[in-house]
Amino acid sequence: MKVDGGLGTELSKAGTAAHEAEAAGYSGIWTAETAHDPFFPLLLAAEHTERIELGTSIAVAFARNPMLLANIGWDLQAYSKGRFVLGIGSQIKPHIEKRFSMPWSHPAPRMREFIRAMRAIWDTWLTEGGKLEFRGDFYKHTLMTPFFAPKADELDGFGPPKIFLAGVGELMTEVAGETCDGFICHGFTTERYLREVTMPALERGRAKAGKTMEGFEIMGPSFVVTGANAEQMDAAAVGTRQQIAFYGSTPAYRGVLELHGWGDLQTQLNTLSKQGKWVEMGTLIDDEILNTFAVVAEPEGVAAELNKRYGDVIQRISFYAPYKSDPDRWTKVIEAVKAA
């Protein structure tokens, strides 16, 4: 199993942090699109590393268009010499319309078309002189002249980047299986949801494309509550409860809670979120819920529990730890997970 880490978006520290992650043994490092652009740090990371994979988890697809992402993905793949993974997601309607001022409709069909459009653009660039003729319901790309096309030999030896898609709902998950090279499980995922909802949806998508799950990568960010002593464990649990509560307040993720019989909790959390009662929300996440979403163990026990829950279904894991922690703590966990 590959073990991945996160890369912050502070540009002055990105290169050093990436170098340290590679030295620590991480298989890949990923940026998230939150307060800063997710691509710039990866350019610096590529410059300061040689082997580690570099990806976005995630970049918001619907805040952009297929041509823009195809271009960014191509350039980062070329500069990193084949180590870039373009991880994308849809975000949710309010953010797309109100934060990014972009259109939102039929997210799963739109995402399928978005990805196919990117691949059509890459195919045109790889053929050098081929005609770009992509016409869909949401996107149309029919103009490409040599002046605006990168050279095919820039990707010699590795080709275009892999595309990973994040999702929670069944329709978007099917699109990932059908059109992508990998799937990014949302942090708000349980083992049961992964096995009973996510995996069947991915398999349906692969079947639509006439493919099996062979070679397809599933990336599983997992909440981990750990610490060297009781005080650290308690602090980690508080931070994780609050993050689970934050995600649980989102209507789009209600299905995960409903699978476990906790659908009413989503309504309660959503109401509290609208009142700005973020700390109080965390108190609604009891020990049963915490242990369902998170691996709760001392550092020496984390690897065994992760492997027990996910070892037969995912190919790469990252640790979702929404609290301050000692980096050395994770070095031991990385070694243990890789050895499991």
Question: Please, how many domains?
Answer: 1
Strand order of the largest sheet: 1-2-3-5-8-9-10-12
Low-pLDDT parts are: none
Radius of gyration, taken over Cα atoms and rounded to an integer in Å: 20 Å
What is the CA-CA span between the terminal residues? Answer: 8 Å
User: Biggest sheet, in brief?
Assistant: 8 strands, parallel, barrel
CATH fourth-tier homologous superfamily: Luciferase-like domain
Residues in helix, %: 40-55%
- Proportion of strand residues: 15-25%
User: Helix count, per DSSP?
Assistant: 14
Number of strands: 12
Overall geometry comes to: globular
User: Helices and strands: which structural class?
Assistant: alpha/beta
Name given to the CATH architecture: Alpha-Beta Barrel
* SSE run: EHEHEEHEHHEEEHEHEHHHHHEHEH
Mind telling me the CATH class?
Answer: Alpha Beta
